[in-house]
């Protein structure tokens, strides 16, 4: 009987030990396939995380991007009659043909003058006011600088009344009903006999009957 009691006591202790092992096994966290421990109770109780909200693209602007605007270059011929502007362009072309760069300032090359009695503006181009940088200057010679005079013949009309070199060019209209154009010319342009072989003469012109006419010529002796 004592032996049976001993066996019974041993079986009881073995059963209690088995129950304890099972209880300990249930309390140990289960390993994840990736190798990290997972708390089973916590994973069952916690809700799944919310998926990230999709990115919303910013609305495209319907307005076009501004285009930079460059300042327009000033027209150097602004305010000049077409015939006068063409004469300036002729001078520029002559300079470029001589491998130079025309250099002049608007408002200084073509001067408003008064030659005709109609009260409309006349124009004088004095090539003292234009340079030909880097090249031979074609409008300057031993006979002086080229002068181009445009005289009004009516509304919106001008005629090229004078176009040649001169050593001096003046317009005298002070106290005169008819202005006078005074030209200091090389002897090659003088027509009077020249026994003393003077190099210059003074020629006076007036606008008469629609033309610039020479009214006097004298040798320049000074």
From TrEMBL:
Residues 41-71 are annotated as: Disordered. It comes from the Bacteria. It comes from Xanthobacter autotrophicus. Residues 58-71 have a biased composition (Low complexity). Residues 46-57 have a biased composition (Pro residues). This is Uncharacterized protein.
